[in-house]
Amino acid sequence: MNKTAHRIYLSLLSIIVLLAFAAIANKGYTYYKLGIEDRFFHADHILLKPSGIWGHGMGIIGSLFMILGVLLYMFRKRYRIFSRIGILKHWLEFHIFLCTLGPVLVLFHTSFKFGGIVAISFWSMVAVFLSGIIGRFIYIQIPRTIEGRELSLNEVRDLAGDISNTLTSTIGLDEESLKIIVNAAKPKAQLQSGNFITRYFNKKAENRKTLATVKAIMDKNNLPKAQRLQVINLVKNEWSLNRRIERLVLMQNLFKYWHVAHLPFALVMLVIMIIHVAVTIVFGYRWIF
Amino acid sequence: MKFRIKHIATAYLFAVLFSFQANAQISPGELAKVHSHLEGLSNCTQCHILGEKVSNAKCLACHTELKVRIDQNKGYHSSSLVKGKQCASCHNDHHGVTFQILKFDKDKFDHNLAGYKLTGAHSKKKCADCHKAEFITDKKIKAKKFSYLGLKTECLTCHDDYHQKTLASTCADCHNDEKFKPASKFDHQKTKFKLAGKHEHITCAECHKTSIVNGVKFQEFKGVKATNCTNCHKDPHANKFGQNCSDCHNNESFTVVGGVNNFDHSRADFNLEGKHLKVQCKSCHKLKLTTPLNFKNCTDCHTDYHEKQFAKNGISPDCSACHTVKGFTEFSYTIEQHNAGAFVLKGSHVATPCFACHKKLDKWKFKEIGKTCTDCHENVHENFIDPKFYPESNCEACHNQNRWKEVEFDHKKTKFELEGTHTKQTCRDCHFNKEKTGHANQKFVGLANTCTNCHKDAHSQQFDNNGVTDCKRCHNSDSFKPATKFDHNKTLFPLDGKHINVACVKCHKEVSNQGVTFVQYKIKEFKCENCHR
User: Fold this and answer.
1) Residue B374: predicted pLDDT
2) Looking at residues B229-255, what average pLDDT do you find?
3) Which of B200, B226, B252 is the last residue of a domain?
């Protein structure tokens, strides 16, 4: 899958999620905005109530999406026989898609009524969802191989420093200019002091200053526009890499702890969901079956 | 590391599971307040049947009062709209404590489906006006905070018995739903007292009186006596005419009276007698028969014919003082009463009809008709008798009141005193001269005192002396014959001898002269041979 196809694929998944959310929200807006006591008397109650054709359906389908999303990704990741099917990154994206669309459907299944034991399942789901977002953030902070394997600190450091080679091989710059740009891309030790807020703003200011210097050098060398963009991207990529290197150990630790949250929440959600489904079936609510 | 994660996850799961109260964990939401006693895991099957959602049977197992109704096929829940539906399709739950488990559009509710169609004023009422505990008799339902059950369809379930059990409880037989008053369905014609005439137009309250009974307003409808008019109507006649008002009155109007022919006027204060019996009612009762009349005096109806001729000090005596009801011309005025007045009736006046004196003209007149004879009688002697003989035209100077012909006149007052048989003659014999026509001409004045003025000279003027025959020389007043005063010896031929005993007629023969036959007394010659042969 090339980059464009991948973007279309991601966009499609996002659009599906957004459309599903928008369509259901639109359909049930007047119903969902009512108080719990008044919903029974809404014309769409029979459809949208948690045990209604739509409501119950959304619960079942949403749950299946989540189970499927978890299982597919888990099997792909953990079992060797699936390890060669597709790129893990794409499976993760599909996992994120199903586990986003699923909670959306489950959210409407609950009709925003969060009570009883199943609320634990719901809030666990919310926790899983939110932790998933956090996990995704942490995940992208850890550089990986194209297969998704985490790079070690040394492997990451190897990635850095190639900028001077790139600059000299593709863009013709004088030695002094090259040196200034390479230095500009290097991490600055004086920016490691203070708290994370002051650090953030100091770094932003410094980066703006550095970028202005780089741009001035490029002006001086009369670089064409394409090359100017390439240089700026190289510098920014280098900053990003530097940032990742700075955070790598932290992120790797965070990622370990993230699993402690993400997985148990998922398990809680699943167990209670099973109880919920069992109770539902026991009491005779079988949706269309 | 993986081991640790699994342990943390398991611990978390258990912690979460047991951190909630087990009771509420599988409930999809809080039960409504009325069902709050059913909260809890152990109570699920109070309403739910496993595998069959919510069962009607479960609902009705608690709501027995409703089940009774449904079993009886009565009420809203037995209507075609509800029948076959799940209870929970209308009365759902698990929507929170404040959820209205019984909610419907009260304004659009078709009460007909409840088995009691709301019409008239009922359709304008609020549910709670009728559906309230005080109208519910069933203790179990009454004890509930609120229920639409338990009301009976009988009117008295909600309405006070205005008639206080005096009438049947089937109010709708008489009343409709619109208004309690008037009882529009009530047909008085079906009662023992059928309304007719004016009775049809009066308000109920006029006969059915309202009072306070048991502390509340009560109008009497049952047991109202209607056997007689006086049960309701005041008898203005104070029972003078008995109790059968309808003998005279009808239902249309008290003042329009019928049955007049049967009316016994004697029961009124004015008994009809005499002529009054034949008088048309209208003659006296000019307005309505029932309009009060003054009847104390005859003049209350009758005009005073006499135009106050008998009034004293301006007040006329009642007609009945003289008249009776037998007729105006029949009266009770007696001669004694008349004689007590200024003109005492005597003699033939007693027998004289009243009108002879009192109705000389067309009109009767009783006052100032005069007391003297000539006020009534014609003075027939006027210009014939010198008024000095009957001063002030007083006839009684000669006549009396017994008979006109009975005349007592002292003829000595005249120049011609009556003597002898003159005293035995009637006035007419001398003073009236009958014509051949029979008309008698009176003559009192200018009569000569000579006999021949009245008497016929039987001697055919043989004894005239200078044209005057003085009968008294021979005759007296007692009798014409014999001529007692005649002395034959004083004649030219005195009688003597045999002549004394000779009958007069022997010498004085009847002779006729010019058709007049008379005895010849005066003899011209006294020769014997004139008599003797």
Assistant:
1) 87
2) 84
3) B226
Whether residues B29 and B141 share a domain: the answer is yes
Total domain count for chain B? 2
- On whether both B80 and B129 belong to a single domain, the answer is yes
**Whole-number pLDDT of residue B24:** 45
Q: Which two tokens stand for residue B293?
A: 């009349």
Terminal C-alpha separation, chain B: 240
| Tokens encoding B33 | 């307040």
Whether B163 and B145 share a structural domain: no
Task: Output the average pLDDT for chain A.
Answer: 83
- At B332 the pLDDT is 82
Q: Which neighbouring-strand residues pair with B440? A: B434
Q: Do A268 and B12 touch (CB under 8 A)?
A: yes
Is the domain of B69 the same as that of B112? Answer: yes
pLDDT confidence bin for A194, thresholds 50/70/90: low
> Same domain for B138 and B171?
no
Which DSSP symbol is given to B233? S
pLDDT, tens digit (0-9, with 9 covering 90-100), for B312-366: 898 888 888 888 888 887 888 888 989 998 889 988 888 888 888 888 888 888 8
Which residues of A are less than 8 Å from B35 in CB distance? none
List % helix, strand, coil for chain A (3-state, nearest 5): 80, 0, 20
| Domain assignments of chain A as residue spans, ordered by start | 3-152+252-282, 153-246
CB B5 within 8 A of CB A260: yes
B134 occurs within a structural domain = yes
Question: Quick check: is B321 in a domain?
Answer: no
What's the pLDDT score for residue A158? 67
Q: What is the residue range of B120's domain?
A: 25-150
Residue B115, phi-psi category: left (phi > 0), alpha (psi -120 to 50), beta (remainder): left
Distance CA B178, CA B196 (A): 26
**What φ, ψ does residue B151 adopt, rounded to 5°?**
-90, 135
Pairing type for strands B464-465 and B468-469 reads: antiparallel
Of B13, B24, B27, the CB nearest to A267: B13
For B24, the closest chain A residue by CA position comes to A116
B40 shares a domain with B71:
yes
pLDDT band of residue B439 (cuts 50, 70, 90) is: confident
A256, B8: Cβ pair inside 8 Å?
Answer: no
Same domain flag for B100 and B205: no
- Mean pLDDT over B144-150 rounds to 88
**Among candidate residues B395, B409, B408, B380, the one with its CA nearest the CA of residue B349:** B395
**Is 0.90 exceeded by the ipTM?**
no
Final residue of a domain: which of B150, B179, B214?
Answer: B150
Q: Smallest CA–CA separation between B64 and chain A, in Å?
A: 24
* CA separation for the pair A170, A195 (Å, rounded): 39
pLDDT mean over B50-55: 85
Give the 3-state secondary structure of chain A: CCHHHHHHHHHHHHHHHHHHHHHHHHHHHHHHCCCHHHHCCCCCHHHHCCCCHHHHHHHHHHHHHHHHHHHHHHHHHHCHHHCCCCCHHHHHHHHHHHHHHHHHHHHHHHCCCCCCHHHHHHHHHHHHHHHHHHHHHHHHHCCECCCCCECCHHHHHHHCCCHHHHHHHHCCCCHHHHHHHHHHHCCCHHHHCCCHHHHHHHHHHHHHHHHHHHHHHHHHCCCCHHHHHHHHHHHHHHHHHHHHHHHHHHHHHHHHHHHHHHHHHHHHHHHHHHHHHHHHHHCCCCCCC
Give domain status of residue B387, yes or no: no
Q: Do B29 and A285 touch (CB under 8 A)?
A: no
Do residue B192 and residue B178 come from a single domain? Answer: yes
Q: Which two tokens stand for residue B452?
A: 């021949």
Could you give the count of Cα atoms lying within 13 Å of A241 in the half-sphere of its Cβ? 21
Within an 8 Å CB–CB cutoff, is residue B20 touching chain A? Answer: yes
Q: Is B86 on the interface with A (CB under 8 A)?
A: no
Residue B145 resides in a domain: yes
Q: B250 with B267: CB under 8 angstroms?
A: no
